[in-house]
Amino acid sequence: MIQVRNLTKRYGAFLAVDDISFDVDKGGVVGFLGPNGAGKTTTIRILSCYHPATSGSASVAGYDVFTQSMDVRRRVGYLPESTPLYPEMRVREYLHFRGKLRGMSYPERVEALRRVIERCWLSEFIHRPIGHLSKGMKQRVGLADAIMHDPAVLILDEPTIGLDPNQIRETRHLIRDLGERHTVLLSSHILHEVEQTCSRTIIIASGRIVASGSPQELRDRFSARAKVVAEMRGPEKEIEAGAKALQGVQKVDVSANNGWIRVAIDAHPDRDVREDVFRLSSSKGWALRELRREGATLEDFFVQVTAEQAQRARQER
Amino acid sequence: MGNVKTLAQRELGAYFLSPIAYAVLAMFLFSAGLAFGLGTFAPGNEASLRTLFENWIVIILAFVLPMLTMRLISDELRVGTIETLMTAPVTETEVVLGKFLGAFLFYLILIAALLLYPFLLQFFGPVDPKLLICHYIGLLLLGGLYIAVGLFFSSCSKHQVIAVLFSFTVLALMTFASQGLAQLVDAGWLRVVLQQLSVRSHFQDFVRGMLDLNHVVFFLTTTGLFLFFTVKRLEMRRWQ
Fold first, then answer.
1. Which pLDDT tens digit goes with each residue over A191-204?
2. ipTM
3. Cβ contact A101–B89 (<8 Å)
4. Given A11, A70, A84, which is nearest B84 (Cβ)?
5. What are the structural domains of chain A?
6. Kind plus residue range of the DSSP H or E element containing B213
7. pTM of the model
């Protein structure tokens, strides 16, 4: 549904998006995750035909965003980051206006309105001026606008920013539902959100894609590099030396705690050192009270890959 | 063209919901009424609209219309609605024409209110309907040009105050100053350009009841030029 090839966007000397390529298949919710300023909004604005790219190409729903812009716009529902709306218009009037711009006839608009009023819970304030609505209500109006022409692709830029916890939960629920009918690309800097709503995640940092896959795949990739943590009683120096001598060990951190020594071991990805640690402690006669592999979270993965990319980007400059 | 109509309707609707538009309407009616009441509608004066149209309307509109046009695009830039607008299936040209048309329709309401004065005058002397039509053709062309200039400056900044100041300045230069400036310049092409740019001298013949194609062409081309600049300005924004 979305194809991006070698896309680059420069603002003067600033490189916002640096030669990225990715694909999004039909159906499902894809999370576009990255720290603030990573290039998410820039990429999304290129896909929604707001900005042209400096180089590279992108197509949405089979049409090129630059040469077939109007065809793309008719098939995309886009919710920009700050949900801009006309404050003086009433909700119903605004949705009719947006429907007309998309070439929908009056009966089509009435039907679409009935549908989005129900989906986005607009019925209580459909006749109120937009300027009088709360942030969460406006967000729902923006979302209703994005889905009212039943677009093939929905692009949502930070859709839950500024909402209260209940509204966030409702919105995520709605987005998951929408993923069953539409292809949804959702940008976020909130990891938890992506983990909850998305079937696939693309992680972007400093203008480059650093990882992509389902949340589970990403966790697995990271847990391969997981730490092994052990606690034993014995001389600190010897324990440290013994752990470092194990095969495949890359890094050892030792800390003392009430007479117990806590060892955190980073080993080579395809080596599980737990058994070796057990043998070491039993051969030396050190009591062992804990031995476990530290579960990796998507957050750890995110922090690590984005930090690595930021460092790489700094070095290149 | 359906989009132009939709956009024009929205703009016209936005005027009726905006306090600024009502203030501008009131200001316009008050100043035009003052000019008519003191300048024309007094014992001993000629019962015609000539003084009002020749001197006052041009000045009043140059001040009033930029206040109507200032928000047209700059507000979209400030609120960010330009992003939803320009990602909907509409072209820059449709947006510019729609906004121009919306403002122009509101302007029609403004000048329709002026019909009160010929109505009052006909009690004192005959009002020539052909002359009145000529006045109104002039007014339509003049208003179109002023709105196009205001629309262009509205697309240049997200601050309405900047938009209004630039429109005032340029309209004042085009309307009043260019003839004066032409006097200061030696005869030559620059002088001709300045003389030709003078909106007021182009408008004067309409007031006198002369329908000269030269002037019609002047107003239509300059209006078209400013609308074209506005489209280009919006297209440029995409690349920034």
1. 888 888 888 889 88
2. 0.89
3. yes
4. A84
5. 2-221 (3.40.50.300), 227-293 (3.30.70.100)
6. helix B213-239
7. 0.85
